[in-house]
Amino acid sequence: MDVELRGITKRFGPVVANDNVNMMIRGGEVLGLLGENGAGKSTMMNILSGLYSPDEGEILIDGKPVSFDGPGDGIAAGIGMVHQHFMLVPVFTVAENVVLGVEPTGPLGYLDLKKARAQVDAINKQYGLHVPADALIEDLPVGIQQRVEILKVLFREADVLILDEPTAVLTPQEVEEFFAIVNSLKEAGKAIVFITHKLHEILAISDRINVLRQGRITGEGDPKTLDEAKLAEMMVGRPVSFTVSKGAGTRGRVMLEMSDVIMLDVTDERLLDHVSLKVHSGEVVGVAGVQGNGQTELVEAITGLERVASGKIIFDGEDITHASVRDRHRRGMAHIPEDRHRDGMISPFTIAENMVLNSYYEPTYTRGMAIDWSAVQETAAKYCLDFDVRTPSVFLPAGNLSGGNQQKMVVARELERQTKLVVASQPTRGLDVGSIEYIHARLIDARDEGDGVLIVSSELDEIMGLADRILVMFEGRIVAEFDNTDGKADRNAVGLAMAGAHQGAAA
Amino acid sequence: MTDGKDLQKVNEDMRKLLARAAFGRGNFEDLFVVPVFAVVAALVLGALIMLATGVDLPTIGRSFVALAVGSAGSLNAVSETLTAAIPLVLAGLGLGLGFRAGLFNIGAEGQLLLGGTAAVVFTFSFPSLPFPILMLFGLLTGALVGAAYASIAGILKATTGAHEVITTIMLNLISIRLLEYILRQPYIQREGRADPVSKSVPDAGQLPRLLDWLDPNLRLHAGVFLMLLAVAFVWWLLFRSKIGFAFRASGANPDAARYAGMRSGLVIVAAMATAGALAGLAGAAQVQGVLGRASPGFSAQMGFDAIALALLGRSHPVGILFAGILFGGLEAGGRQMQVDAGVSIDLISIIQALIIVFIAAPLLVRAIFPWGFRKITKGGKA
Amino acid sequence: MTFLTKTGLAAALLVGSVSAASAFTACQVTDTGGIDDAGFNQTAWKGVQDSIEEYGIEGRFLESQAEADYEANLNSLLGSCDVIVTVGFLMGDATAAAAAANPDQKYSIVDFAYDPTIPNVVGQVYATDQAAFLAGYLAAGMTETGVLGTFGGINIPPVTIFMDGFVHGANHYNSVHGTEVSVLGWNPESKEGLFTGNFDSLDDGRAFAQNLYDEGADIVLPVAGPVGLGSASLANELGTDELKIIGVDADQTQTDPDRAHVYLTSVLKRMDATVQAVIKAAMDDTFEGGLIVGTLENGGVGLAPFGAFEDAVPAELKAEIEEIRAAIIDGSLTIGG
């Protein structure tokens, strides 16, 4: 099945989200759709799935114009969407989730789960998905959950699959397996639209690439003739540097020292298991690992969000094992949290308010019991300019900003202060190339000014590019350490350690 | 880098970032158009209900005129509207503050009952104190007792995680029975009375009536200043003070508040105590300004009405003030409906409730009167 | 049902008042029980209605939803009423305040006696204990278990005076006949007993009657306005062999016709009669502040007919009750003590 978009324009008030977009999607082909956050990718796909109707232009399926009036029309026409955020019921089985809404029923409307399971297994076999039909969603790893989403659209007989940032939640190994599935779908004649902002992935999997910027198609091409630099330039509109340009750091005194730290969960399972590490001034330490191996807890222990059961945490020579969050912050610890929406910002609050979220009580911003809002606003405006947070006003709710600008806001708040240690957790997750480049440069700046920097990331590329030293976490322990001065660490060895191969060989 | 031109550009950019947005059409619609249409919709539906119960058209017309006249049509009407609004606004401010801090405090009723009772007991215990002092100390006592009672729920939540909805509902029940007990104690019960009614607030302890020199029946009392002061104070507390910032942050995103080093336990107890103080003040203002004594159920469910009021005012002090005046107007106007048109008090309650429902559901109002509003585009920014 | 008739009635009144605006107008402010409480608000309103019928005057009522409404309701009637009747002990303070602020307005209050009296207020009080004494005597003569029960709404004099008379009447029967009939729910000496704490919960009425029944009582006197309707429905379910109810205020076989058969009798408190008398006085310009006391002698209180039990009550007992009534009226029998 072929789908063609012709002259699609969609406006939201004064904002033109899609501007005269032409796009061809062919069966048996992977179309890579590349664009920064806010470039109009999601709008485009929502038009295709029938959620929005375009202001101008038309959609043709196999040459015939169609019109979609509601969210159900896209899937009815054979266009299925796999969302970045899964829409699954955690306490239902795979088969139940797959058939949800289109349940096969027997006489008198009883739910024929046996039939559902058989259908799910058939699709499983056909595309090599290997999803256990009777498992509960909540028991499955993220990568498998994603396959359930794919099962859902295949079950609804979609011929066009739109995959919205599918690799954002996967480990490198899972990405390999995922690509295999995409290829088997392609071979079965399905049309795939692969949306991402990761350049190497789009080059690896696509047959054709469209680049979207500010609502317009700004580039088209064959992955064989393109490279990352060209793609990035099309996407951002200017040349982008990929290698983080960093000189050798000057390693100074120990800023953070953890010795034998143990953290327990409510059932006394060890979340952190005898963790010891050091971060020096003028050094970037990267913590690699597949998500869920204790990295979150490590950051919580350092920043004081969770209590540790035993062990010691020394910050610039002082014991902070039992210090409060605010106390650690006041001593010069910056914390870029892993989930900015949950922890790092308050969406309905203004940008100005968010800029002082953890320093509002300081004398600079207060007069007696009151907050000196004009001082706060001026500071916020300055931070916005310094960190390139693009907003028309500091009085707008932070939730109105694009993801990249929100993260820059958080980074600005944390790094503009006098800091000694920067703890950055997933600092560039979900961001576009331009913002990633910017934030990386700022983290290196912090190192060069003499801060210790601890970066936790599930993006191995990020760790490899930034860190002077790499620690690998597995099941709550630090299982390996690699020297990465001049990027000399062995990528494969790090990947193996992440998978647990280094067990017992802790540094 | 810092030559004059660059500096000028930076200043220009700063100025742009610091420019406030103009008052938009959307705000205007939300604040004025929606309430007006809501009242219209409620009156139409109310008229239909009256018709269905056998009230004739002229009577319906008269009753609506009476509603308007009785709420705002005369000095007495305005006096009654404001008098009814005072305790509602005070208690509503406390609840709104709690909502802002993420606390769904249902306990204003109990805090109001005990606060009001404490104010009565204090004033008749020190009858020798001169006028403004006794009055002010009475109000203060009410606020302190309300705060202390609300703190129980706050401390339980902060230390054990007990949900405030449950604890405050239970504390309400306790306060109702406790009040009946307290009012029977010989020291408190009025002499010569077997029923639970307290001694009277001495004159020096009363909030002075403001308009009795015009007409002794005008009940408006000095509590109206207290109400306005409280609106200003809560606005300052929420939007200008340090602790208010922590309240709002904890309410909007508790995870982010924790990340930012705000102490959730402290915020919970402080917010509950402030809310309780305002509810206690509402009770004190009612007994010192209107009732002159405490009796079982003197709160007349105001603590619960105040929940609707706080939600209607979107937990904003100024919104709560207007919502309180609306509630007060409905009460005073409803009385006039009964007097002038002889409409049953039950029907009046239905119409009052309808007005509140429509105001609380702006989307419903927009759906009923589509021509009154700018069209909303489906979806949003991509 | 009552809601509809009430609204219709109010509307009809309104039309009347518009056509003859200058007519004499009597107004009533109810307490929180409401106009259709099958109790004292309704009985007092009957007095206004009777006056409307007999004297051709206008009448209207205002219902209070909360205590804070009393004063406001009184104020909103100013200027349009020749006499304002307030109903209930709890309105005593508000009525006194309004009377002081408006010395030219005539007021009358049911169930409250001011001491000293107020020049523009007539208090209407009732020697209900006289009638309740007869009811207690009757009940003691009718009980099969030897146990009677009573409970009140709130512990206030207009309520407890019923209970006093009831207990004393039963005791009198004991001393005459040498029986040992006991009354649960009220102790006239310590002034303590069973109270629901409200005048509106029918569920409470049912629960309190159930408790008394469980303790052996087969005749119960609820003194709590509409709360007693809950007790009546329990008696209806159990059957009158198990439980009988004595009504209060009005003849409840009339006000609660669906369950008329459960009422042994009712202790009448003829507020309609006194209200009508006050209205008449105001019309005739003989209105004077002070006190009206309803007694057996002037018909202000009394015992209703025995209804379904007319044949069940022995003629002997009926005669004894008549004798006692006469003795109370001529003063040869003092009740209480």
Task: List key phrases describing it.
heterotrimer, A: 507 residues, alpha/beta, Rossmann fold, 3 domains, 6-stranded mixed beta sheet, B: 382 residues, mainly alpha, 71% helix, globular, disordered C terminus
Q: Mind explaining what this structure looks like?
A:
The complex is a heterotrimer of chains A (507), B (382) and C (337). Chain A is of the alpha/beta class and 507 residues long. Chain A has 17 helices and 22 strands. Chain A has three domains: 234 residues, Rossmann fold (3-Layer(aba) Sandwich), CATH 3.40.50.300; 172 residues, P-loop containing nucleotide triphosphate hydrolases (Rossmann fold), CATH 3.40.50.300; 74 residues, no CATH class. Helix content of chain A is 32%, strand content 26%. Chain C folds into two domains: 137 residues, Rossmann fold; 170 residues, Rossmann fold (3-Layer(aba) Sandwich). In chain C, helix 2 crosses helix 10 and helix 5 packs across helix 6. Chains in contact: A-B, B-C. At the A-B interface, strand 2, helix 1, helix 10, helix 11 and strand 18 of A face helix 1, helix 9 and helix 10 of B.
| CATH homolog superfamily of the largest domain in chain C | Response regulator
Question: Helix and strand string of chain B, N-terminal first?
Answer: HHHHHHHHHHHHHHH
- Assign a percent range to the helix content of chain C: 40-55%
How many strands in all of chain B?
A: 0
Which blocks of ≥5 consecutive residues of chain C have pLDDT under 50? 1-21
Oligomer: heterotrimer
The rounded Rg of chain B comes to 24 Å
Residues in β-strands, percent of chain C: 15-25%
Strand residue content of chain B: under 5%
Identify the strand order in the major beta sheet of chain C: 2-1-3-4-5-13
Largest sheet of chain B: none
Q: Largest contact between protein chains?
A: A-B, 53 and 34 residues
What class do helices, strands and sheet pairing of chain B give? Answer: mainly alpha
What is the CATH class of the largest domain in chain C?
Answer: Alpha Beta
Mean pLDDT of chain C: 88
Topology of helices and strands:
The complex is a heterotrimer of chains A (507), B (382) and C (337).
Chain A lengths: L2 E10 L2 E11 L3 E7 L5 H8 L7 E6 L2 E3 L4 H6 L2 E4 L11 H6 L13 H15 L14 H14 L4 E5 L7 H16 L3 E6 L2 H7 L2 E6 L2 E6 L6 H9 L17 E11 L5 E11 L2 E6 L6 H9 L6 E6 L2 E2 L5 H6 L2 E4 L3 H5 L6 H5 L10 E2 L2 E2 L1 H14 L16 H13 L5 E5 L7 H16 L3 E5 L3 H7 L2 E6 L2 E7 L7 H8 L9
Parallel strand pairs in A: 3-8, 3-9, 6-7, 7-8, 13-20, 13-21, 16-19, 19-20
Antiparallel strand pairs in A: 1-2, 1-4, 4-5, 9-10, 11-12, 11-14, 14-15, 17-18, 21-22
Chain B lengths: L3 H14 L7 H28 L4 H16 L2 H26 L7 H18 L5 H30 L3 H19 L40 H17 L2 H11 L1 H6 L4 H28 L10 H11 L4 H25 L3 H16 L1 H7 L14
Chain C lengths: L1 H18 L5 E5 L10 H16 L2 E5 L6 H8 L6 E5 L4 H10 L4 E5 L10 E6 L1 H15 L4 E6 L4 H21 L4 E3 L1 E2 L4 E2 L8 H13 L4 E5 L3 H12 L5 E6 L2 H4 L7 E7 L1 H13 L6 E5 L6 E3 L11 H16 L7
Parallel strand pairs in C: 1-2, 1-3, 3-4, 4-5, 5-13, 6-7, 6-10, 10-11, 11-12
Antiparallel strand pairs in C: 8-9, 12-14
Helix pairs in contact in C: 2-10, 3-4, 5-6, 5-11, 7-8
